[in-house]
Amino acid sequence: MSPRTPDASRRSETSRRAIYAAALGLVAESGYAKTTIEGIAARAGVGKQTIYRWWGSKADVLLEAFLDLGEQQVGEGTLQGTTGMTGGALDGPQGIPDTGDLSADLKLVLRATVDNLLDPRFDAPARALTAEGLVDEKLGRTVVAKLLEPNFELYVERLRSAREAGQLRPEIDPRIALELFVAPVAQRWLQRTGELTHTYTDTLVDYALHGIAPR
After folding, report:
1. Domains of the chain by range and CATH?
2. Cα separation of 19 and 145, whole Å?
3. Residues 178 and 105 sit within 8 Å (Cβ to Cβ)
4. CA distances (Å), 95 to each of 35, 65, 91, 153, 158, in order?
5. Distance of CA 79 to the CA centre of its chain
């Protein structure tokens, strides 16, 4: 009987998952500045040349690991919210719920957003990517394209549906209106200007909808 040929794809996937876990773990424990490719490689049990073969920088590793973390939770059926700033993976595969009650749907998603932002697994890498994206233009554009815009579009679709149902004024631009919900949450989270709670996001929805409701 001939020996079984090693499965290279399985070996690569195992290494990739170990690298994801190492990158997220080190950023959470030590911060972005102290996280290095060498440190990620050592924790993952791979050579640093393996990492450089797949990624160009630690920022690239972290971005992909963060995307994968969100995809895993969606696959597990966990509802996740988005701020449109942090890059959390969001809202499940069907987007923002559309029950016909815009206020309730937005409150549900923003409550889930708060839960995500208060989860250390998401908080540390999200802050790291946000901060690094401000000084690294290429990374910043990638974060916007891969993390933010897809999530913004979920809000746009839900607000457009509400507008068509007569729940918003006809002239309301959904792309601008979404910022009434996501921007305050993102600012409070990034700058730690106040407590981030479900009560806060519920109130935010009430205030915002009062401003864009039919008159």
Report:
1. 60-212 (1.10.357.10)
2. 23
3. no
4. 33, 22, 5, 9, 8
5. 12
Q: Is the pTM of this model over 0.90?
A: no
Count the Cβ atoms, other than its own, within 10 Å of residue 50.
17
Contact of 95 with 167, CB cutoff 8 Å: no
Q: Rg of the chain's alpha carbons, rounded to an integer?
A: 20
Give CA torsion, residues 100, 103, 106, 107, to 10 deg.
Answer: -130
Please give the Cα distance from 178 to 98 (Å, whole number).
15
Tens digit of each residue's pLDDT (9 = 90 or more) over 171-214: 999 999 999 999 999 999 999 999 999 999 999 999 999 887 77
Where does the chain have alpha helices with state H?
Answer: 8-30, 37-44, 48-54, 58-75, 102-117, 120-135, 137-143, 149-164, 174-177, 179-191, 198-212
